[in-house]
Hints:
By secondary structure, this protein is of the alpha+beta class. Strands 13-14-12-15-17-18-19 form a 7-stranded parallel beta sheet, sandwiched between helices. The longest helix is centred in the C-terminal third of the chain and has 21 residues, at 565-585.
Amino acid sequence: MPAAVMGVALVFLIIFYGVRSLRPDHPESSRKTESPSREESKRPGRALVPAKSIPTPTPKQRLTEWRRDFRPSPSPVKADLPSEHRIELETRTVDTSGGPGPLPTSGQQPTARGTFPWIVQFDGPVLEEWKESVARAGGVLRGYLPNYAFVVEMDELAAGRVAALPNVRWMDEYRPEYKIQPFLEHLASQPEGLEAPLSITVQTFAPEDASEVARALTAAGADVKSVSPGRRWGLVRASVHLTRDVLDSLARLGSVQWIEEYVPPAWHNDFAVRGNHLNVTNVWSARGLTGRKQIIGHADTGLDTGSVTNLHPDLSGRLKAVYALGRPGDWSDTHGHGTHTAGSILGDGSASTGQFRGVAYEASLVHQSVMDAGGGLGGIPDALGDLFLQAYTNGARIHSDSWGSPVYGQYTSDSQAADEFMWDYPDMLLVFSAGNDGTDANRNGVVDPDSMGAPGTAKNMLTVGAAENDRAAGSGGYSSFTWGYGWPGDYAVNPIRDDYISESADGVHQGIAAFSSRGPTDDGRLKPDIVGPGTDVISCRSHAPGAESGWGDHPNPDYAFSGGTSMSTPLMAGAAALVRQYFLERRGWFQPSAALVKATLLNGARSLTPGQYGTNAFREVPGWPRPNNVEGWGQADLEPTLFPAPPASLLFHDVLALATGGTNLYRLFLSTNGTARFTLGWTDYPGTAGSGKKLVNDLDLLVLSPSGTNFFPNGRASTDRTNNIEGVDFRPPVSGVYTARVSGFNVPSGPQNFALVFSGPWS
Length: 763
């Protein structure tokens, strides 16, 4: 293969998910910057002086700041209260050690079916026969709540029968105050109030209730934007003048399950594929994995000219189907974002003699243009699963999405919809950007936690953060800029301020892009899952009139620089397609699950610890063991992931099911050479709106050494009750038979399929 091809690159566009431009007049910039000062950096060619003034924030900016800074007050609870005596909601923790409440007492209105919502808690980890007994008594189970409980819809007669069931230990009304997102409560209490109507989403318990709730909103003076009966619940989106009375009246409707703020989504390669980054080039040349016969869905602004007969050379012949969802009849890319991300997925490098080639350059694309006439994302349907299903029915089994809402760790209705789709279609992996809301707001020299966007907060998808791309200062794009020059309000102090945006100290530990959103999610789950190059990525440039060039022009007019988690995401979507191709062609696995593809990528990811700022107080990436809320499981490292060097090998099990109390054992003989990794992943049932923890089906991974030592997952000293990815990394202390045990601790919505990946020196 020519050297130019070996150096293939994929660059990601400006940032579909809100990447902030260095240019002061960029419309998506959250803070304007002054023109560069003549005061020079200690490093050549770099101005460092922050903006001299910050404009008075607009109402929209003030709302964003409130959202970023909000932290809910913890619910008081007895320190020694065991898990079986707690219901963990997003709004509070309910003490269930007392007696049940026999009748609704809050003044809640019944549904059109004459029913009320109740919480029914069982004696312990949920068995299927307990759920069946509730159904026989007349209850309809509407969603799991930790611990060991369900929201159950029923009338008073059925409630009496359910309360008498032998394995029901506690029952009470699902009260109106449980239904209101804490941030909405906070907004309603602001003394200055909101200057404009607020967008909200109301979720109903049943799909048929959506129209009733829409009528109630209209009667209250709200502007109803959409009504979406779904498969399991309904959604209504509306614009309201937020008051305490409006919230209370909605919450008293028995058909309403949850009320939350609606945050509209926004847009959020040659170096990227090299051995010290994604390690893809050898997978192409020596292993023959190029994305052949893989189909990838892609929802973005558009593609190039919007004409199949006059398409960017790198994308020509790559389209299996295309849909103009935002501008009927027009799927051109006057923004430039979608063309750039598509090139990173599967551009074949025709316009660069193979230099700027996408990760899965022989794959096919189902493109969904979702940019509307105003430049927003109006083409994304309110019923988010419809977007993914359209691509799925065209054969796509990977879906790349570089957009989301800045919600700072919340699990929103869009997060829930993404999890629901993957539960219903478990062979489809959604790949989403984490967001570009990483900042050092407290100015301590370390990027703050808790900035994950949605639907990237979903459990089942692959959520992607951004690493730096290791381009030398002055080599194009933003490479000659430092973080403090580009965004002085966000990165005002060192070591971040003076760090070049794309330069790496050693070419291996690139560090994480400062803007890359960090975890955890609000319920404590680890996110992002993985990182990929996300600064100064080179990829296809749109030829549509007025299209932007992202982070700057490339000498080859068919390409442009860009950056953001928007750019790292399509690289990971392409990598997922290569993993899927590997299982189909090399391992003969006819229908690899999304959980298997995800677990395999995470199992082989390479940690970037300690990052670019050393091991001192400014350490960027936590140390061993993985994972962490900065890089997830690390940066994708494709060749050793799929083809580990002997004596190591890759083993897997896929689509195995467990119920509560079930256990599977796997025994392997392990030599003492090298690192051993076990990664368990499962596509979980969608989390319940208003639940304090979004994990529903809780599986456990435990590895036992020949001496009887227990290795717990995710760097913990005990079991993980929060995440649906569990991994054990260790350097074997002795050779011998190691036993991996996968058990179903609590599977209330099962049976639960799972995938398990092993890598290490097996013999």
